[in-house]
């Protein structure tokens, strides 16, 4: 598939970090950038592909976020890489379609092509409704997936509403055929959430985590993110003081360093195959602080990616410690695995062999040592129970 026709090249004149006189070891001089001409970057020989989205027609109260890609590049290109060999390309900016639906189609087609060739797309927003197009890429691949959204809202909207940045989750849930296995929200703020929405998320066995609970023990985010195939990050999940470049920014939320830690966890996950950063609006970011923060978040994601341990999926049981825990008045024992390489934990959901084939990417649930401790205290971990309910 020739994806070059979907993109406009990056104008390097806007980015002094890519000039011949600049420091050659900066990312802007290491990344293979689509700058026009005959040589479109060879995505078959790369690990990560950056692509910008300039479409913000379905952004609610945040028009201008389509200007984000180049604003982020300005700071990203000036950063220095870590101690690893980078294979990263910048495909440029996706051409904005005649309609938003055309942009969705182009994005889903490109992302599906990249994932099919083991290239991880990093999407530089636009508005967060592009998460729906990202999801459609997995439908094109016939792959059942888990989505994690870092967001102060659930973005459920109402079923009768058109697809927007505030209703994309409903569109994903209602879309047929459906390829969503699980959805997790990290960082919701209760005063923004209708109680009926909370009940719906619970009834769907989706995972929801309040921002205050997450911030109390950020390490517990790691297994949540490790279970994701797709991560969607709404920059309004970060407090206004750290990320003012968003018309929907609020006083509360994550600090910048916490956001960087979350996306580094995402980079470390062997399972995650796409990520998007949305709703950055340069019109509200006169000093570039928000764009600079997102550039650093992408740096941390890349750092995580190049430090992946590759201990999932399991290749050799000898590389793991296996623990069996019996729960009284519960017929199923809970089997835990601990990686000898990374000390990361998983729980196994008991399935019939034919079910394991269908759900081979989901019956081993990432967890933490805390979940093992809960089981040892004769209680069923919530993570295990939620997935068990979905599969039974």
Account of the 3D structure:
The chain is an alpha/beta fold and 392 residues long. The protein has two domains: 4-305, Ureohydrolase domain (Arginase, Chain A, 3-Layer(aba) Sandwich), CATH 3.40.800; 317-391, no CATH class. Helices cover 32% and strands 18% of the residues. The protein contains 13 helices and 14 strands. The strands form two sheets. Strands 1, 2, 3, 4, 5, 6, 7, 8, 9 and 10 form a ten-stranded mixed sheet that branches. A four-stranded antiparallel sheet has the order 11-12-13-14. β9, α9 (256-268) and β10 form a beta-alpha-beta unit. α2 (68-76) crosses α10, α3 crosses α4 (130-141) and α4 packs parallel to α5. 48% of the residues are buried. The mean pLDDT is 94.
* N/C terminus separation: 39 Å
- Provide the CATH topology of the largest domain: Arginase, Chain A
Low-pLDDT stretches: none
Percent of residues in beta strands: 15-25%
* Overall strand count: 14
Output the helix-strand order: EHEEHEHEHEHEHEHHEHEHEEEHEHH
Helix content: 25-40%
Shape category: globular
* CATH architecture classification of the largest domain: 3-Layer(aba) Sandwich
Cα-based radius of gyration, to the nearest Å? 21 Å
Provide a count of the helices: 13
Give the number of domains.
2
Q: Would you tell me the overall average pLDDT? A: 94
Please describe the biggest sheet, giving its number of strands, its sense, and whether it closes into a barrel.
10 strands, mixed
Q: What's the CATH C level of the largest domain?
A: Alpha Beta
């Amino acid at each position: 598939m020739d994806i070059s026709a979907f993109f406009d090249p990056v104008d390097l004149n806007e980015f002094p970090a890519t000039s011949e006189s600049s420091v050659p070891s900066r990312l802007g001089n290491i990344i293979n950038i689509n700058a026009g001409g005959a040589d479109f970057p060879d995505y078959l020989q790369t690990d990560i592909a950056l692509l910008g989205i300039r479409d913000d027609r379905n952004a609610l109260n945040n028009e201008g976020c389509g200007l984000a890609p180049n604003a982020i590049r300005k700071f990203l290109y000036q950063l220095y890489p870590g101690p690893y060999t980078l294979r990263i390309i910048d495909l440029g900016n996706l051409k904005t379609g005649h309609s938003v639906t055309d942009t969705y189609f182009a994005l889903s087609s490109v992302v599906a092509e990249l994932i099919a060739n083991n290239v991880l797309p990093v999407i530089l927003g636009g508005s967060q409704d592009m998460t729906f197009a990202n999801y459609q890429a997995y439908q094109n691949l016939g792959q059942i997936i888990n989505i994690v959204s870092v967001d102060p809202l659930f973005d459920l909207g109402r079923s009768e509403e058109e697809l927007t940045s505030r209703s994309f989750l409903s569109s994903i849930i209602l879309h047929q055929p459906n390829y969503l296995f699980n959805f997790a929200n990290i960082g919701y703020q209760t005063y923004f959430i209708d109680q009926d929405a909370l009940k719906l998320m619970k009834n769907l066995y989706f995972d929801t985590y309040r921002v205050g609970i997450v911030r109390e023990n950020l390490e517990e985010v790691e297994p949540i993110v490790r279970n994701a195939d797709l991560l969607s990050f709404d920059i309004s999940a970060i407090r206004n003081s750290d990320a003012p470049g968003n018309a929907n920014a609020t006083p509360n939320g994550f600090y910048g360093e916490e956001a960087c830690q979350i996306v580094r966890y995402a980079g470390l996950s062997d399972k995650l195959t796409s990520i998007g950063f949305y709703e950055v609006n340069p019109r509200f970011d006169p000093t570039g602080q928000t764009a600079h923060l997102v550039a650093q978040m992408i740096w941390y994601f890349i750092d995580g990616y190049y430090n992946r341990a590759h201990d999932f999926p399991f290749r050799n049981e000898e590389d793991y410690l296996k623990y069996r825990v019996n729960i009284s008045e519960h017929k199923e024992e809970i089997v835990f695995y601990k990686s000898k390489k990374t000390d990361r934990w998983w729980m196994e959901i008991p399935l019939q062999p034919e079910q394991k084939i269908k759900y081979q990417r989901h019956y081993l649930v990432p967890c933490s040592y805390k979940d093992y401790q809960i089981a040892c205290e004769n209680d069923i971990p919530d993570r295990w129970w939620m997935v068990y309910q979905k599969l039974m």
